[in-house]
Amino acid sequence: MAAVDKAALTEALLKGRGREATEGKAYCHAYRKWQGPHWTLVGLAMIGHPAGDDSLRPLMARVEEWLFDRQHVNPPSTTTLPGQEDRVRRCASQEGNAIWYAVTLGLETERTIELVDRLVDCQWPDGGWNCDRRPQARTSSFQETAIPARGLWAYGKRRGYEPALLAAHRAAELMLSRHLLWRQRDGALIGPDWGGRFDLIHLPIQFYDLLFALQVMAEIGRIGDPRCLDALALLESKRLPDGEFPLEYRNATTSDRVISRGTFADWGPAGQTRSNPLATEFAQAVLSKARAVEGSNLAPPMRRDG
Predict the structure, then answer these.
(1) Would strands 253-254 and 249-250 be described as parallel, antiparallel, or unpaired?
(2) Residue 2 Cα distances to 187, 255, 266, angstroms
(3) Proportion of the chain above pLDDT 70, given as a percent
(4) d(CA 276, CA 268)
């Protein structure tokens, strides 16, 4: 298996840090897709950057400044519709990622638990979250649920914080009720509101797809649930002749400049017939965890697109 050049990825991800230090907001918004401080920290956590790097704290401070700004916590960023007070419209993936990399990179502050409690308080009755402001949106979005589940679990496990652990399991149950990828009513593949198809492996930005859903289940300790078997078998079916896995849906453009949906890093080859080192590392780790769970032998896929 080709090794992931994590040193090169780290160097590239931190390319904008110098300008960030001198220009701050003038350089780019904390959430700028996908080169702002928020996404820099997501990328570093994703590739396993060592925890305790205090040089990253200015980036974390910029993220917290954004997440606790009045514009972020008030409408339209956070909205409650009349008669639907139990369904707060909130892009929960933002807080979810911030919690996750704060824990993973050792960048927690006294405000991290405030983000945790914010997500717990605005969790929808079905166990997920949604930012869709349309009144007819009454069920959670998987694209706004997997990331918060991951972040809450990481925090809950680290701190022994039961509300976070319970919220993460509620979110996992929502995803598992659809066997991660398929609609309950007819077994058809769930269609995303935006982004690539859920049955494709997405990188470098992960919101919801086959591989990421399984990664979250593995981290939460639910990879042995029988409702993961279909998705595990589908992932296994993507293994290439060389034993590795592809990056099927590239969702960022490598660029030295700040551009829309840009990334400073080169995340490797893409395409359904080309091996990608990072996708391979993630996929093999998930499959290895699944096989280590007693009774979780991989079965042939049971569902197909409807």
Answers:
(1) unpaired
(2) 36, 24, 15
(3) 95
(4) 6
**Which pLDDT tens digit goes with each residue over 152-186?**
999 999 999 999 999 999 999 999 999 999 998 89
Helices marked H in the chain: 6-13, 17-23, 37-46, 57-67, 70-73, 92-104, 112-121, 146-159, 162-176, 210-220, 229-237, 277-292
Range of the domain at 254: 6-292
- The total domain count for the chain is 1
Q: Answer for the pair 174, 144: CB distance below 8 angstroms, yes or no.
A: no
- Residue 123: CATH number of its domain: 1.50.10
pLDDT digits (tens, 9 = 90+) for 70-98: 999 888 888 889 999 899 999 999 999 99
Residue 183 lies in a domain: yes
Domain assignment present for 1: no
Residue 193 CA from chain centroid, whole number: 16
Amino acid letter, 191: G
